[in-house]
UniProtKB/TrEMBL annotation, chain A:
Residues 162-249 form the Histidine kinase/HSP90-like ATPase domain. PANTHER family: NITRATE/NITRITE SENSOR PROTEIN NARX-RELATED, NITRATE_NITRITE SENSOR PROTEIN NARQ. It comes from Neotamlana nanhaiensis. Pfam families: HATPase_c. Keywords: Kinase, Membrane, Transferase, Transmembrane, Transmembrane helix, Two-component regulatory system. It catalyses: ATP + protein L-histidine = ADP + protein N-phospho-L-histidine. This is histidine kinase. GO terms for molecular function: protein histidine kinase activity. The chain crosses the membrane at residues 6-31. One of its GO terms (biological process) is phosphorelay signal transduction system.
Amino acid sequence: MDEKEIQSFLVISSVVLLVIIFTMISLFLLFRKKKNDLLLEKKLAEQKFEQEIAKTQIEIREEIFRNISWELHDNIGQLLTLAKIQLVNNLSTDEVKDTISKSIKELRTLSKLINPEALKNIELKQAIQDEIDRFNRLNFIKANLVIEGETKALDHKTEIVFFRMLQEFFSNTIKHAKASNLCVTLKYLPNMLMVIAKDNGLGFDITNTENAGIGLINIKTRAKLVKAEAEICSKINEGTQLTITYPYQNGNS
Amino acid sequence: MALPEILSYAVNLLELIAAIVALVNYKKYAQSTERYFLHFLWFTVFVDTFIGLFILSFYEINRTLVYYIYTGFSFCFYFWWYYRVLQKKWHKSISIVLGAIFLCVFLLGFQTNGSQKFIFIIGAFFVLILTGFHLLQLSNSSYTLKIKHKLSFWISTALVLFNIGMFPLILMSDYFKVRMDNLVFTNILFLLNLVLYTCYIIGFIWTKKKYNHF
């Protein structure tokens, strides 16, 4: 190469190198920034998820405490009052014994519910069964649980959310629907879990937004939280049905 | 052996290595549209080595014409590939429009004996637009977290670096009146090819199957 060629080589190669290096640095900075943004976004979403789970757990506990207070007052309290009346009226000791034994039995069942370990390690199937047993025991409603397919353990947090959704549905059924029957079905399909809760209560007009109370909106929001879908169908005087669909691939099962 | 000749063989060697590495790692990206790059790399080896080194040396065929057709074909391949990998509708439409414009200019140049440099500048500019779209698409996806395993990222990076480097090379070689067969041009062209094929090779080695779905 002569001097002129060397000169042009140096100029051109410097410019080419400069352009390449500048592009590489720009690409590196762009992808690093996007990566950091995405990580931050993920972290915030995780934090929000944890907060929602904690809130759900607190709500479950509150509901359980409400039930306990109710049961103490309306069930055990009534039995003990009956025992007192029986004693005051000098009825046979066998009758008083019977009433007190019944109270003790109810008290034992209730103490199981307050066990902190049971609250902490909620297992969906067992938790629903406990609720249904309680409804039947207290004669609130005739309830039953049907399990179809082979039971599959889900992520613990997902189970907590599902249980809270069902708890809200049950609460609506008992408080507002005036239903006599409640049926819960857990369908473990090969690729998804379907949870169906159905009552035969008064039902409501689903198109009327006033009827879509906070409880029902909460159910849908909670479903989204664990990447599930919740559908509520209701017809006046025919009852209400909640269907939760949860594809296993959406979470760590 | 003179330096330009050595560098020319070195480029052939780089193409061959990239094609072999692509073949060895084919299973990792067999499901995605990047699989066509394997065919494209072997086609490049065939044109550059088999036709370029052997056929053209023994038969009197117009070398410029062969490389003009090859340049046109390779840009058309890039446009088609970007049409497949870009997801937004308007990105796809732009790739069709750019491809069509390029094809018209290419055919027009074919008839009027147009220069390879001119067609290259147009093609490189259009490809740079499409690589920009694709890199933007990747940067806004969750692939950013493990971008080094995404083959299309390495292919686009290779194309960006090569084409963006070719711009000053072609424009300034005109300014300094450097001919394409001059040592200055060959040296820098080798450097750009080195960057291009190194990116391809890294991409084929680092990529993982689960990152190549589309």
